[in-house]
Amino acid sequence: MEKEWMNEALDLATEAVEAGEVPVGCVFVYNGEVIAKGRNTVNETRNATRHAELNCLDQTAEWCKENGQNFATVVAAMKVWVTVEPCIMCASALHSLNVAAVTYGCKNDRFGGHTSVLNTAVLYPEPSPMVGGLESDRAMQLLKDFYKGTNSNAPHPKVKKDTAITRLTIKQDSVTQE
After folding, report:
1. pTM recorded for the entire structure
2. Which of 6, 28, 85, 109 has the smallest count of CB within 10 Å of its CB?
């Protein structure tokens, strides 16, 4: 079953690439049932927090509401499958909500919140267990393929040209410009 859920997350990561997003897919499972699944939508929404895991958390809250379930109870018994090691933001969110377990594919050497950049688990008295390496080659290949191309949805850099630097001197009763 674990491999099946990771394969579903990998399918979502492939969808993300097709939409011009960083290829991260995620599946939340509660009592053997997928209750949320998502992918990165950062570029589509122009919202840097719309990572796959946070999109799934929103879906989980909605699922709990529709099914008369307590969010905290569901999350504490929920298992997460995500294609890439959660970033520091997402790992912190999952730990603070105390999810039952997180299984990820490949490491995230730039932003990882488990072992790669910062071990966020040390910040929590009872961190959620996180294990990596499931289908890591496939997850890493999606990332490599994505980063070989260019991200057409990325914001254009704003470089100011020919601007003068003004130095302000602040004295007790006045401000002068140099």
Report:
1. 0.80
2. 109
Positions annotated as catalytic residues are 53
Could you give the CA distance from residue 10 to residue 144 in angstroms, rounded to a whole number?
14
> Structure tokens of 144?
């490599």
Q: What is the CATH number of the domain that holds 99?
A: 3.40.140.10
- Number of other CB atoms surrounding residue 35 within 10 Å: 19
Helices (H), the chain: 2-18, 42-45, 52-66, 71-77, 88-97, 136-148
The whole-angstrom separation of Cα 115 and Cα 88 is 10
Cα angle 14-15-18, degrees, rounded to a multiple of 5: 90
Q: Give the pLDDT of residue 169.
A: 47
Residue ranges making up the domain that contains 22: 1-148
